[in-house]
């Protein structure tokens, strides 16, 4: 779903400071407070805004991080990922096109890095792994880069297909349900298929 210029400005303003009030955002973007309110709730509902939280400084908190890459057979990768998702030291996990997993892990003490290496060694499906400790942080921004022309890509809530264009909407109470086609709409709403 395409975002207009005001959506983009609101995302930029909120990305740099998630604690601003709707009034403060309205002043910066030069739109009305109700416009901000309805646009923000729309962006939240579409999942473009995941939430609001404090941006903590890992190193200032005395923690250290490591970048971990893991190689496993393609058929084993999701099982490996599943086990690692439960590990508290794993803070971020990315599935790479190379077929590897990349993790950003954070440790509250150095001996925990060794403990984690031991746990990796105990996962039989892991063919190979590499742990590199982070020794300095050059840049650490949110991954989302807010530029004009952004679109929200949402899964159809009936078939799961990723939708870039204008989805069909159904209201369910206060919630909006997004669907990719009249066919999915019919299945979702339980309407007769017309034959
Ligand atoms: Zn669909």
Supply the key terms:
31% helix; 6 helices; 4-stranded antiparallel β-sheet; flat; 23% strand; Arc Repressor Mutant, subunit A; 195 residues; 3 domains; binds zinc ion; alpha+beta; Alpha-Beta Plaits
Descriptive report:
31% of the residues lie in helices and 23% in strands. With 195 residues, the protein is α+β, with helices and mostly antiparallel strands. The protein has three domains: 1-55, Winged helix-like DNA-binding domain superfamily/Winged helix DNA-binding domain (Arc Repressor Mutant, subunit A, Orthogonal Bundle), CATH 1.10.10; 64-133, 2-Layer Sandwich (Alpha-Beta Plaits), CATH 3.30.70; 153-195, no CATH class. Strands 2-3-1-4 form a four-stranded antiparallel beta sheet, covered by helices on one side. The protein has a two-stranded antiparallel sheet with strand order 5-6. Helix 1 (5-16) crosses helix 2 and helix 2 packs across helix 3. The longest helix has 13 residues, at 33-45. The radius of gyration is 22 Å and the shape is flat. The two termini are 31 Å apart. The model has no long low-confidence stretch (mean pLDDT 93). Zinc ion binds at residues 156, 158-159, 161, 179-181, 184.
